[in-house]
Amino acid sequence: MTWSSKTGLSVKTIENLWHVAKSPNGADDFGQGIENIDAQTWRSRKQVLFVVWAGNGRCLDVFVFGNDGQNKNPAWRLSELPDGDGIRHEQCSTTLI
Fold this sequence. Notes:
By secondary structure, the protein is of the alpha+beta class. Strands 1, 2, 3, 4 and 5 form a five-stranded antiparallel beta sheet that branches. 16% of the residues lie in helices and 25% in strands. It has helices spanning 3-7, 11-21, and strands at residues 34-38, 48-54, 59-65, 76-78, 87-88. It has one domain.
């Protein structure tokens, strides 16, 4: 199943958002690094949540795009928490043993 069929967004919209969200040093293979796209939860606000891997794949960058994903500039972006820690998958531990 493709992101387009999961979200109802066009492939072109997803590709445009991916180009904005991917890191400059990221892979050039379209779709590489997409963790999640949610076009349903904030549909009433006409916003799309777009999450991509960052760095080594453990960290995440979170974007919200407006106008049903048609705005190329994100309404907001979050790549680290207020304490400076990156956003990570739940199963990843940052504790040193």
